[in-house]
Amino acid sequence: MVNNSNNLGFIFIPKNDEDVVGNDDLKTKTYKRKPISYELIYLHKLISNKLAKILKQKYGFNNVSSEHIAGYGSNKIDIVVKDHNNIIFYEIKTYNSLRTSIREALGQIIEYCFWTNEERAKKLII
Fold first, then answer.
1. Does residue 77 register a pLDDT over 70?
2. Residue 69 near residue 56, CB atoms below 8 Å
3. C-alpha–C-alpha distance, residues 57 and 52, integer Å
4. What is the mean predicted confidence (pLDDT) over 95-112?
5. Confidence at 55, pLDDT banded by 50, 70, 90
6. Which of 37, 41, 56, 87 is the most exposed place for a label (fewest CB within 10 A)?
């Protein structure tokens, strides 16, 4: 066991993973669930609309675009703002967990900005 006490509590513990060393066959399992009714709350759309209104007041109506095409595939950036010669990308997430929201948004917004091997935005805001 290697103990790196200066890593703020992280301790590397090697494991003997029999699954990794052993069988390489794909395993599957089937689950059957009862139909459930869900109430959908369109919080993402509400936040996006309200934020877009605020940004249009600040940057001008023609300088803010909601659900802007990212330029590859069918991906859309939640809000794009043109601030003089700079572009700002906004990504909105509404998961119940702040950590999950940040994790999902960060990967997505970095992809939007750098997927084409060029910097497409000067600011990235989650």
1. yes
2. no
3. 9
4. 89
5. very high
6. 37
The amino acid present at 118, given as its one-letter code, is E
50 has which bridge partners?
none
Beta-carbon contacts of residue 116 (< 8 Å; ≥ 6 apart): 71, 72
pLDDT at 34 (0 to 100): 85
Query: What is the identity of the amino acid at 24?
Result: D
**Residue 102 pLDDT class (50, 70, 90 cuts):** very high
Written as one letter, the residue type at 20 is V
Pull the structure tokens for residue 87.
Answer: 């572009």
Question: CB of 66 within 8 A of CB of 78?
Answer: yes
Is residue 119 pLDDT above 70, yes or no? Answer: no
| Distance of alpha carbon 107 from alpha carbon 22, whole angstroms | 32
Residue 65 is classified by DSSP as E
In the sheet that 64-69 helps form, which strands lie side by side, from edge to edge? 64-69, 76-83, 86-90, 123-125
Give the pLDDT confidence score for residue 58 in this predicted structure: 95
Which residues have a Cβ under 8 Å from the Cβ of 25 and sit 6 or more positions away?
A: none
